[in-house]
Amino acid sequence: MPVPIEEIVESTWMPSCSSTGAVGTASAWRTSWPTTSCIAPLANSFAGLVLVPAAELRREFAAAVKTARRAGLRDATLWSEAGKEHVARWLAAKFEVSEQVIERRLEKDGLWPGPPAPVP
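Above: the chain's sequence. Below: its structure in token form.
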């Protein structure tokens, strides 16, 4: 079932702009229109949700991790910044979005960082 737009806008994806104060709800955002400088971050967040649906991101992320492990990538490397960049690049190509969109979504959806690196 489609998610109502109000639910998306009211979700934790609502960016805040410290320079103008936090805009925490859709109604607060609407009343501050057009003076708010939050329009671009809000549009980017919304686009990220539309272009990279959460369920598909989780599924593709799990597949990327599994593929990396099968290729012999150790967890310490996989969960490093270099590993994150590699996974983001792979997922960005899959979803046809920028790596930055994927990195933000991985963090916001709680998929990154992964498990801590094992202690030697």
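The two ends are 47 Å apart (CA to CA).
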